[in-house]
Design brief:
Helices cover 38% and strands 14% of the residues. It is α/β, with parallel strands linked by helices. The strands form 3 sheets. It has a 7-stranded mixed beta sheet, sandwiched between helices. The chain binds pyridoxal-5'-phosphate.
């Protein structure tokens, strides 16, 4: 049931293939399903043929208000007329940093960068500079962007040989792997063992507090907090996804565990290129260039577009909407309707489908047991999840097959009702040919 594309659409795809290798990110749809998008409004995106989709990709998460929210468009337009970049302090950057400090429990000081990858890269460097230690510990299946330290056992094809990481990309010097240890998400005993063994050389433990869509087991994050504190290791929450999404104060507010440093991106700047490292002032101060004059080592952190005023204006406008009463209640309620509806559809069909995640982000997993770590995700039927996603795409949902669904404030109850109809048809489509599990 693949939708046909116009000749003009095919031509855009051909040019995109020639000029860009067919993609601008790692989100690559099969040739049969590839689309070129023209624009977005609210919960919808529209392709160059004028075909509309309910969007659950949302730019891979940033568009928590939906596409082209009037407050964001207005703020960016106003700032654009005043100039787009200055490489120095601006009111927009200062106000956004102040708002992060008000919102986020660990944030006493902020540094802006342009991408989430830069944010985690700098957070790790800051941790190394502050502690004088070299190694970091991360979790198998945890994604922290595309720099060399992050692409370690983020998506290994089989369970890792912990604590030895497996580089996720060609082109990473093998020496980098020697500076990274890998543990298993939600396995506090293993993590305790690794921390106790390597405490003297560990600068930081970094995690996504909601690892992809795998929630932390009760006591796991507080256990990490307690262990890292005991050994003077910094705890870094990568809140690029969870920041301003699970709660206004991010996962640290939702789960009640305060790290030393945290990274933000995506929802923080509502679809414009800006990310941040925030944390305790004493730690963040290692980025202070004045220290260099005093002969002290500095964790060098700079970037041409850091704190870009257009993106900062978009961020301020986004946060002012997110601060309105009832926003998070709405996001949770609408997402719960989608999750509950999909579970019912699966149960009625006898399909072993799990909807995992927390707050307005979820993932559909075909597995007998609810996964609680990366090995559990590997045991799930990913191929079926991808086929389900493709079947949704064919029927008018814009999704990243096999990956997370993001929900925005622009999604309505009508969108939920239509989405559930499509979920039902997509489930039937992927199950019918083999007759699997159908009553
Ligand atoms: C948890 C997490 N950290 C870091 C990143 C990297 O962010 P960016 O794509 O802006 O570099 C991502 C991107 O998806 C992410 O999900």
């Amino acid at each position: 049931m693949v939708r046909t594309r116009s000749a003009a659409h095919e031509e855009w795809l051909r040019r995109g293939h020639t000029a860009l290798g067919g993609a601008v990110t790692s989100f690559v749809l099969p040739e049969t399903h590839a689309v070129v998008l023209s624009h977005g409004l609210g919960s919808r995106v529209v392709d160059v043929d004028g075909r509309e989709y309910i969007d659950y990709v949302l730019g891979s998460g940033p568009l928590i208000l939906g596409h082209a929210h009037p407050a964001v468009v207005e703020a960016v337009s106003r700032q654009a007329a005043l100039g787009s970049t200055f490489y120095t302090l601006t009111p927009a950057a200062i106000e956004l940093a102040e708002e992060i400090i008000r919102a986020v429990p660990c944030a006493e000081m902020v540094k802006f960068v342009s991408t989430g990858s830069e944010a985690t890269f700098h957070a790790l460097r800051i941790a190394r500079a502050y502690t004088g230690r070299t190694k970091i510990l991360k979790f198998e299946g945890g994604f922290h962007g595309v720099h060399d330290y992050a692409l370690m056992s983020a998506f290994p094809p089989e369970p890792s040989d912990v604590p030895t990481p497996r580089p996720d990309s060609a082109g990473i010097p093998p020496q980098v792997a020697e500076t990274v240890l890998v543990s298993r998400w939600n396995d506090l005993d293993l993590t305790r063992q690794l921390i106790e063994t390597h405490a003297a050389e560990l600068a930081a433990v970094i995690c996504e507090p909601l690892q992809r869509a795998l929630p932390p087991a009760p006591g796991f994050l507080s256990g990490l907090r307690e262990l890292t504190q005991r050994y003077s290791i910094l705890l870094i929450f990568d809140e690029v996804v969870t920041g301003f999404r699970l709660a206004y104060g991010g996962a640290q507010e939702r789960y009640g565990v305060v790290p030393d440093l945290a990274t933000f991106g995506k929802a923080l700047s509502g679809g414009y290129p800006l990310a941040a490292v925030a944390g305790r002032r004493e730690i963040m101060s290692v980025t202070d260039f004045a220290r260099k004059g005093r002969g002290e080592p500095v964790a060098h952190l700079s970037g041409t577009l850091n704190g870009n005023p257009l993106a900062a204006a978009a961020g301020l406008a986004t946060l002012s909407v997110l601060r309105q009463p009832g926003v998070y209640e709405y996001l949770y309620r609408i997402t719960d309707q989608l999750k509950a509806g999909l579970r019912e559809l699966a149960a009625a069909r006898g399909v072993p489908l799990r909807v995992i995640g927390d707050g307005p982000v979820f993932q559909v997993v075909f597995a007998e047991d609810e996964p609680r770590d990366y090995a559990g995700m590997l045991r799930a039927d990913r191929e079926l999840a991808v086929r389900f996603g493709l079947a949704c795409l064919e029927r008018g949902l814009f999704v990243n097959p096999g990956e997370k669904f993001y929900v925005s404030l622009a999604h309505t109850e009508e969108d939920v009702a239509r989405t559930l109809e499509i979920f039902a048809a997509a489930l039937d489509a992927v199950l019918l040919p083999s007759g699997t599990a159908l009553a």
